[in-house]
Amino acid sequence: MGAWDPAQYVKFENERTQPARDLLGRVDVEKPAYVVDLGCGPGNSTALLAARWPEAAVVGVDTDEAMLAEARRRAPAGSFLLGDAATWTPERPCDVLFSNATLHWLADHTSLFPRLMSLVRPGGVLAVQMPRNYADASHTSIQAVASEGPWAARVPARVRAIPVQEAPFYYDVLSPLATRVELWETQYVHVLANADAIVEWVKGTGLRPMLDALDAKERPVFEGRYRAEIARSYVPRADGKVLFPFRRLFLVATR
């Protein structure tokens, strides 16, 4: 998959950051000394952690150098490291291991979540938010367009199996390792200017792997077909704006 584009990602910064605010609001750890933002992206979530716990060592970890450069600019109080959330190991057990909109990119949650829990000290917290809107048109339209056109023989393999499960799965995986597990889902309903805004949103995340698989001539054709699908699926309201429902799963597990 190609490099991330921080500018594209933060076009909807407030909407993308709100779930991190909501997750952080449910984390109750007194005076943590070591806080990790796993998959920190452009640092919007890291800045929240640093503001909440200014005395803590706050570390952001991401696989993308461009995202890390933006994170360093946004959250200068933090430390930032290049690392893969699937394999990265902290220098010491975490008081708070925080991950906002990252772990849905990783497979095998049956093994992943116990591994992450093992990185947390006793009494510490694993706090995670993941999108769970993969049955919505914003995502199913990617697969629909991928199955048509000259790219059909090549790109369906790029349509990734979505690893995010329903809440009971994470309870069953984490409860044997935790003293407390809290789980909830929220469906945000974002008010966007038009259907094209949804395309711009998805280009910053879920559409990226597909566009990366195409050549320079195919990309605008694919995007145009996707844009038409989105326009059919998200009907403007009376004022011309569109509503973009977006479901997210949250969990806070105390070790």
Brief synopsis:
By secondary structure, the protein is an alpha/beta fold.
Tell me what the structure shows.
By secondary structure, this protein is an alpha/beta fold. It has a single domain (6-254), classed as Vaccinia Virus protein VP39 (Rossmann fold). The chain contains ten helices and seven strands. A seven-stranded mixed beta sheet has the order 3-2-1-4-5-7-6, with helices on both faces. Helix 6 (137-146) packs across helix 10. It is globular and about 50 Å long. The mean pLDDT is 92.
Question: What is this structure's SSE topology?
Answer:
Blueprint: H1 6-9, H2 13-24, E1 34-38, H3 44-52, E2 57-62, H4 65-74, E3 79-82, E4 94-100, H5 109-118, E5 120-131, H6 137-146, H7 167-174, E6 180-192, H8 195-203, H9 208-212, H10 218-233, E7 242-254
Parallel strand pairs: 1-2, 1-4, 2-3, 4-5
Antiparallel strand pairs: 5-7, 6-7
Helix pairs in contact: 2-3, 6-10, 8-10
Order of helices and strands: HHEHEHEEHEHHEHHHE
Largest sheet: 7 strands, mixed
**Superfamily (CATH H level) name:** Vaccinia Virus protein VP39
**Beta-sheet strand percentage?**
15-25%
Overall pLDDT metric: 92
Instruction: Provide the CATH top-level class.
Output: Alpha Beta
Inertia-based shape: globular
What's the Cα radius of gyration?
19 Å
Instruction: Kindly state the number of beta strands.
Output: 7
As laid out across the biggest beta sheet, the strand order is 3-2-1-4-5-7-6
- Structure classification: alpha/beta
Low-confidence stretches: none
> Could you say how many structural domains there are in total?
1
CATH structural architecture: 3-Layer(aba) Sandwich
| Proportion of residues in helical segments | 25-40%
CATH topology: Rossmann fold
Distance between the termini: 34 Å
| Number of helical stretches of at least 4 residues | 10
